[in-house]
Design a protein that fits this description.
Blueprint lengths: L2 H24 L13 E12 L4 E12 L4 E12 L4 E17 L2 E16 L5 E19 L2 E13 L12 E12 L1
Antiparallel strand pairs: 1-2, 1-8, 2-3, 3-4, 4-5, 5-6, 6-7, 7-8
Length: 186
């Protein structure tokens, strides 16, 4: 072996160890959740709910919110509800807020509230159309597959501020459901 090859051999052994050590010192750990100030959350939920007046209802609710602080987001929500067997449907739109009160590694628990104006419509002669104010409260948990994708369940209570009586023309005053939530964070 030539003399310069002996000098090169220890250098080749040291080079991988030196590059690994420098990587360890400069690499920072990325957050495992997308709950950070300045991020945008776009997502929604779907559920089957049971109420006093309209027995079984399918709800689809997309939302968009902006994180004003690391755990608080403000935005808006839209909801489409189809009560089975009534010939009615309603949509609602309004502001929403979500507060993440606990997070650890890839899990986060939240409390959210929205107040929306709902417009109800139905089939018949004459066609039915009326409005109501609806409050929705959710308590949920999200699992973050990546810092920008989460999925999880939430318990939901929806209250309509209207006199229901026996009429099917307004949503049930109180509905309870388990919601499947999906969110993307940008």
């Amino acid at each position: 072996m030539k003399p310069y090859s002996y000098a090169l051999f220890p250098t080749l052994l040291f080079l991988p160890a030196a590059s690994f050590a420098s990587t360890e010192l400069t690499t920072s750990v990325a957050p495992l959740t997308g709950i950070e100030q300045g991020k945008i959350k776009a997502g929604g939920g779907f559920d089957l709910s049971y109420g006093e007046n309209q027995k079984l209802t399918l709800n689809i609710s997309p939302t968009a919110e902006y994180f004003v602080t690391d755990r608080l987001s403000l935005g808006g929500t839209f909801s489409l509800a189809i009560p089975f067997g009534t010939g009615l449907s309603y949509y609602s739109i309004g502001p929403s807020a979500t507060f993440y009160f606990w997070k650890q590694e890839r899990l986060a628990a939240s409390f959210s509230e929205s107040v929306a104006y709902a417009r109800l419509s139905g089939v018949g002669y004459p066609p039915v159309s009326t409005g109501a104010l609806i409050s929705t409260t959710k308590l949920g948990v999200e699992y973050f597959f990546t810092p920008s994708v989460s999925f999880g369940p939430a318990f939901q209570w929806r209250h309509a501020f209207t006199d229901v009586g026996d009429s099917l023309l307004v949503p049930s005053q109180n509905t309870y459901s388990v919601v499947g939530q999906f969110s993307l964070y940008f």
